[in-house]
């Protein structure tokens, strides 16, 4: 089983972002996703910076995937996507892939004749759709985040297609034209003053009785709880890649927990006790076919949903 | 074709009301989770839909069928059966989101007119062209996230007809890419066909006021003088960094009457009214106002003015009695 470092969903100062990938080059992850997948206004890393990182990480032996924006609104968003896919097409011989997070990106990847990863926002809920993606040269797919283990098991996955599940991190649940971080500061999106920089793990949204419910991350709304499949790892049959979504602190330890799990040097129960110290309360409801925020507990290890 | 009026119907009386008041087309769904308004007591069985189609066709109007949820493994046949029924009934178009279903419809019924549902999340012309090239879609309904200038860019770069939401409930998230409902209660529009479904909703009188909950999660709490609204979870009040407010969106409706001349000028094919879950009386009132407004703009776009009586009537019907231009108006973002 491979480990993938998912795209950085938050907006960090440039040096912190670069430091993440410098560190990741030495982490036991096999795949690294690069690129901005939330907001086209975020600019501390330009496309050329991402491409430079791609070269460094490829040189460090990582499979690099360039992710496209899930919400494309403007002509300049399209231009950025075309450049990204154009670059991937030039470097396809070095194992470079793109993650298509919108059907527009699928169209461009197919036109460029390059293999691609079908991102979770493509909404692949059935085998017919997955089969069509295989015909279009998708080499890997990420099921919708809400897909349960039971649904995943019932999918017919075409030969040669790998399955990657979102296995750790706050779930990117929704995308909007509106920026909720700017809204919190009574700013318009076009003049957001890049307040996302002040919230390296997003901005917590609580119910009026103080329960953490969601996380605001610019135009993206995330789960309040960190989703984790660590304690389900023994039951992850048919999954070839686990995606770990970067968080601001303790990310190296998170990667090490999953790495130890796949080596068998840590049990699921041990992982389940270690992760909350790194993540806070974790949830696993989607995997069990329940409400997503359902609290993940060790006793649910081996549950048959 | 331009500015056709496409109105919702969750029942035969609503369909007849929409036709009688001047809808060019009515969109409907079957009584199950094959469509994104899977509400108890709503929607059509095959016989009722046949009657509705007869009623509309006799009067020269069209009926579109929404099959806009995502088929799930082991159950794909139910969605296929729904497409088969749509073909038998000779609906004028099928509104789909799932490309697996589009491929089935395009291969099995090459003459069937396919529309891309808003649940297909197409916000750019590259995506729309993908659906056209592969499955021959004829029309796309855009998510309620683009500014008018961005809509125009889409229209200019595709031959696919563009349908825009004009009035009714406002999704603040990209449709088809919002899992908030399943995160809270296990049922999402993509798979279950409803957001914040009624079975997960509870209303409680408490000493602090009326509370609305979704699967136990407090969505809002109302002071005695406040009117409690349905707990659609993105329209509740939450606390962020010590401030309690409508953190995502106010309980408000979309109303784009004043944008009609611009939509007409840029060649928008159709205006969609949201609300298959609403009553026949609601459908009748909204359809009547929009028929008048669209006729007025087509007659003389330069001299078009929104009549105060139209706004008054629509505001009376709106959620929270408030309306917004949504993302069409850039500062809303």
Structure, described:
- The complex is a heterodimer of chains A (305) and B (333).
- Chain A has a domain at 2-170 and 227-267: Aldolase class I (TIM Barrel, Alpha-Beta Barrel), CATH 3.20.20.70.
- Chain A is built from 10 helices and 12 strands.
- Chain A has helices at residues 14-24, 47-59, 75-90, 103-112, 127-135, 149-153, 180-184, 251-263, 268-279, 285-288; strands spanning 2-5, 31-34, 63-67, 97-100, 116-118, 138-141, 162-176, 203-206, 212-217, 220-228, 241-244, 282-283.
- Chain A has an 8-stranded parallel barrel with strand order 1-2-3-4-5-6-7-11, surrounded by 5 helices.
- In chain A, helix 3 packs parallel to helix 4 and helix 8 (251-263) packs antiparallel against helix 9.
- The longest helix of chain A has 16 residues, at 75-90.
- Chain A is globular.
- With 333 residues, chain B is of the alpha/beta class.
- Chain B folds into 2 domains: 4-170 and 252-332, TIM Barrel (Alpha-Beta Barrel), CATH 3.20.20.70; 180-245, no CATH class.
- Chain B has 10 helices and 16 strands.
- In chain B, strands 1-2-3-4-5-6-7-15 form an 8-stranded parallel β-barrel, surrounded by 6 helices. In chain B, strands 9-10-11 form a 3-stranded antiparallel beta sheet, with no helix packed on it.
- In chain B, helix 1 (12-20) runs parallel beside helix 9 and helix 9 packs antiparallel against helix 10 (308-317).
- The relative contact order of chain B is 0.15.
- The mean pLDDT of chain B is 95.
- Chains A and B meet through helix 3, helix 4, helix 5, strand 7 and helix 7 of A and helix 4, helix 5, strand 8, helix 7 and strand 11 of B.
- Strand 7 of chain A pairs antiparallel with strand 8 (173-178) of chain B.
């Amino acid at each position: 089983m491979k480990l993938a470092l998912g795209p950085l969903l938050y907006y960090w100062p440039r040096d912190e972002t670069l430091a993440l990938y410098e560190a990741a080059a030495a982490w036991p992850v096999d795949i690294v996703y690069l690129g901005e997948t939330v907001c086209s206004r975020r600019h501390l890393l330009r496309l050329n910076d991402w491409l430079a990182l791609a070269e460094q990480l490829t040189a460090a032996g990582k499979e690099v995937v360039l992710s496209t924006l899930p919400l494309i609104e403007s002509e300049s968003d399209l231009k950025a996507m075309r450049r990204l896919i154009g670059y991937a097409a030039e470097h396809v011989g070095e194992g470079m892939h793109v993650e298509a997070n919108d059907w527009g990106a699928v169209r461009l990847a197919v036109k460029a004749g390059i293999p691609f990863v079908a991102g979770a926002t493509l909404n692949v809920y059935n085998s017919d759709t997955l089969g069509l993606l295989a015909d279009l040269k998708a080499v890997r797919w990420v099921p919708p985040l809400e897909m349960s283990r039971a649904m995943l098991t019932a999918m017919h996955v075409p030969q040669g297609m790998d399955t990657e599940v979102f296995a750790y991190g706050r779930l990117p649940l929704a995308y909007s034209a509106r920026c909720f971080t700017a809204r919190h500061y009574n700013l318009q999106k076009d003049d957001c003053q890049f307040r996302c920089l002040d919230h390296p793990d997003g901005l917590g949204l609580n119910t009026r009785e103080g329960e953490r419910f969601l996380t605001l991350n610019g135009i993206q709304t995330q789960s309040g709880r960190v989703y984790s499949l660590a304690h389900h790892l023994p039951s992850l049959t048919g999954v070839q890649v686990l995606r770990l979504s970067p968080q601001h602190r303790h990310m190296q330890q998170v990667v090490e927990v999953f790495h130890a799990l796949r080596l068998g040097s840590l049990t699921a129960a041990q992982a389940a006790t270690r992760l909350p110290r790194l993540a806070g309360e974790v949830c696993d409801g989607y995997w069990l076919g329940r409400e997503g925020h359902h609290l993940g507990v060790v006793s649910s290890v081996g549950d048959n949903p | 074709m331009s500015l056709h009026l496409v109105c919702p119907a969750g029942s035969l009386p609503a369909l007849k009301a929409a036709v009688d008041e001047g809808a060019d087309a009515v969109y409907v769904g079957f009584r199950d989770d094959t469509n994104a308004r899977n509400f108890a007591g709503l929607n059509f069985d095959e016989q009722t839909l046949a009657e509705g189609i007869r009623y509309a066709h006799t009067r020269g109007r069209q009926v579109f069928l929404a099959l806009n949820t995502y088929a799930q493994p082991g159950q794909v046949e139910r969605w296929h059966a729904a497409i088969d029924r749509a073909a038998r009934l000779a609906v004028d178009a099928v509104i789909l989101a799932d490309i697996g279903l589009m491929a089935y419809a395009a291969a099995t019924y090459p003459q069937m007119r396919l529309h891309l549902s808003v649940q297909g999340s197409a916000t750019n012309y590259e995506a729309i062209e993908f659906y056209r090239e592969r499955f021959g879609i004829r029309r796309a309904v855009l998510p309620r996230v683009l500014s008018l200038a961005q809509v125009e860019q889409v229209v200019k770069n595709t031959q696919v007809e563009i349908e825009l939401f004009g009035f009714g409930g406002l999704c603040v998230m990209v449709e088809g890419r919002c899992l908030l409902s399943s995160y809270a209660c296990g049922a999402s529009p993509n798979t279950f066909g409803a957001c914040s479904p009624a079975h997960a909703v509870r209303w409680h009188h408490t000493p602090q006021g009326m509370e609305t909950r979704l699967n136990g999660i407090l969505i809002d709490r109302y002071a005695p003088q406040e009117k409690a609204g349905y707990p659609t979870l993105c329209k509740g009040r939450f606390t962020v960094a010590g401030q309690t407010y409508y953190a995502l969106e106010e309980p408000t409706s979309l109303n784009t009457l004043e944008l009609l001349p611009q939509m007409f000028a840029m060649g928008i094919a159709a205006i969609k009214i949201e609300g298959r879950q609403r009553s026949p009386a609601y459908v009748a009132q909204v359809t009547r106002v929009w028929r008048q407004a669209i006729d007025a703009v087509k007659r003389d776009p330069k001299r078009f003015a929104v009549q105060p009586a139209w706004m008054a009537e629509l505001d009376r019907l709106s959620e929270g009695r408030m309306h917004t231009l949504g993302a069409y108006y850039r500062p809303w973002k």
